[in-house]
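Cross-check.
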Amino acid sequence: METFKDALGKHILAEFYECDSHLLNDALFLEKLFNQAARVAGATILGSHFHAFSPVGASGVVIIMESHFSIHTWPEYGYAAVDFFTCSPLMHYQKAYEYIAKKLHSQNHTFTTQNRGTALPQFQKK
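Predicted model, tokenized:
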């Protein structure tokens, strides 16, 4: 299995602000969006599950061979918290990030990355 140079995986934490609140409240739309975002990233989709909350909001996950994409929404604030996790340096999470921002009509969005599995002996500085 191909890995990152200094970690087993990469965890991307994305924040999407000023989004279309109607889209953030539509679990079916979000499921289609996240499955397409996984394809855009070059990921291999294994399955997905999304849930609409009452009175508002949705959460969901797309399980991919490389790990997962997930979302939790607060339509009343126009906000979505998104995670991408990948153990493949070949998955283009940046493409998925831009695709989701565009489709949610996000006016302001950011992300940070966190290496995962760095405490394993093979990644320790010698």
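The first strand starts at residue 9 and ends at 17. The mean pLDDT is 93. Passed to J.P. for a second look.
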